[in-house]
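During the reporting period the student researcher (J.K.) took over the structure-prediction task from the postdoctoral fellow and processed the backlog of single-chain submissions. One of the processed entries is reproduced below for the supervisory committee.
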Amino acid sequence: MSTTVRLPLRLEQTLAAYCAETRRSKSEVIIEALERRFSEALPDKSAYASAIEAGFIGAFASADESPAATDAAGDFSGDTKSRVKAAVRRKHQRDA
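J.K. obtained the following structure tokens:
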């Protein structure tokens, strides 16, 4: 599959010089750079492991537990919807 990319002149010159220096094609260098970039972006944990860590799995409150028991954020420990909302708010809150 081919893809066309427009590079700024400075970047094109840097890429050409690097390819001449290492005796590699532009395609090889670009493919390697993209593979490296996307392999770093992959999460270290599975979605399941992240959900357990966030407390979304195993957060079921039995009928014997007091509904007044809240966590540090003030959400009911068994109320998954509230826990998810609180987690999203914490993730996207801006530092003032």
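The committee noted the following: The first helix runs from residue 9 to 22.
J.K. will present the remaining backlog at the next meeting.
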